[in-house]
Amino acid sequence: MGGEKKDKEFSTRAIHVGTKHYEGSVNTPIFQSSTYKLTEETYAGWAAGAQHTLIYSRLSSVNSEAVAEKLASLENAEDGEVFASGMAAISTTLLGLLSNGDHVIASSDVYGGTYGLMTEDLPRFGIEVSMADMRDVNSYEAAIQSNTKMLYIETLTNPVLKVCDIEAFSKLAKIHNLILVVDNTFTTPWATNPIDMGADIVIHSTTKYLGGHSDIIGGAVLGNKDLIAKIFPKKIHFGGSADPHNCYMLERGIRTLDVRMGRHTENANELAKRLEKHEMIETVIHPSLPSHPDYDVAKRIMPKGTGMMAFIVKGGDSAALSFMRNLKIIFEATSLGGVESLIECPFNSSHMSIPENVRKEAGIVSGFVRLSVGIENVEDLWKDISQALEFN
Ligand SMILES: Cc1ncc(COP(=O)(O)O)c(C=O)c1O
User: Fold this and answer.
1) Helices and strands, number each (H, E), in the chain
2) C-beta atoms surrounding 86 within 10 Å
3) The pLDDT of residue 354
4) Alpha carbon nearest to ligand 1 atom 14, residue
5) Are 92 and 234 in contact (CB under 8 A)?
6) DSSP 3-state assignment of 236?
């Protein structure tokens, strides 16, 4: 795996790298087979650890190999594995690389599922967890202990869209010989390549932009060969492997990532500018806006932007709910990164389990709305938002 990296541009790699042509097929066909014929070659691969060997589809399938190779190329990684969900990718990575007595540092505003895994499950296995602030690399440095093994960050946080200075974190990780894991779901390799900035492992919920059509649940882990070789046997043990059909859907989605991300971002940049001037809006949070606290970091870490944005509606949560329920095109649903625009109020959905005071401290104040801007016509989106804001 790996190999075909920077000799071709992003969109070419997104379309061509990894694709398996059988019987002259243009696309990788769906190999809906749980098991494969054992041959001299596969017996040898099995004896050598089984990675990238077609034996049994919990280990690898034609479709998982194809899409993992594509993703590794897009993230400039040596190797990769795909999973049945983003959480399967995250839990397998953490439990694969950390052991009883190790310590990991993360941030209290990591994705809720990751937060739950770190605070409820890792301690049950004797893995210590400290929470610091992803916006402040010094807070991570201050939390380092003699048993610290890993720093865990997200390129862009959910839902307050803090931009994490991956370069600063990778310097810190190198000084202390720690593994730096970056969840790059919100920006995708189209905007950010954490491995080029010194990260060791990149994780994705492929459910989001990479799949891109709100029709699959999936995950991926990309990194150097040695670390992925440690994670692969845990994928076999924990069993969160992606099935062939899921991998096919993901591969199909990734082929259009370049054009989709361009439109997601263009639309979000435009809506952010217009919303900032709207009398019913108190604050707009989008890294393209000079008013964003991490505007300069964003220009360096994710120069091409993102389709994720947030804003605070004047009048608090009830006003935000009225606005959201007046929308006719933008769909009220959790998740993000699909071609269609999705909207939610984190207080009664994705962040409901977080106590109100912790939510407020994190910036999720009354009236806070998260919008995953889709690739619809931007004028239609603006008309929808404008009419929905006339709820009084
Ligand atoms: C940043 C981030 N990481 C990981 C996940 C978990 O992914 P999945 O839902 O595919 O398990 C999510 C889900 O929303 C997410 O937003």
Assistant:
1) 15, 12
2) 25
3) 76
4) 335
5) yes
6) helix
CA of 213 to the centre of ligand 1 (A): 15
Average pLDDT over residues 328-342: 97
| Preceding omega of 303 cis (within 30 degrees of 0) | no
pTM above 0.85, yes or no: yes
Nearest CA to ligand 1 atom 2: 111
> Measured on CA atoms in the order 24, 29, 35, 41, is the torsion positive or negative?
positive
- Higher-confidence residue: 349 or 237? 237
Asked whether 183 lines ligand 1 (CB < 6 A), one says yes
For the sheet containing 179-183, what is the strand order? Answer: 79-83, 219-223, 201-205, 179-183, 148-154, 103-107, 128-132
Token representation of residue 168 = 């600063």
Query: Domains in the chain and their CATH numbers?
Result: 10-254 (3.40.640.10), 258-388 (3.90.1150.10)
Taking CA 227 as the corner, what is the angle to CA 223 and CA 233, rounded to the nearest 5 degrees? 115
Tens of pLDDT along 58-99? 999 999 999 999 999 999 999 999 999 999 999 999 999 999
Closest approach atom of ligand 1 to CA 110: 1
User: What pLDDT shows up at residue 392?
Assistant: 58
Nearest CA to ligand 1 atom 10: 86
Residue 384 is predicted with a pLDDT of 98
Give the span between the Cα atoms of 286 and 311, in whole angstroms: 8
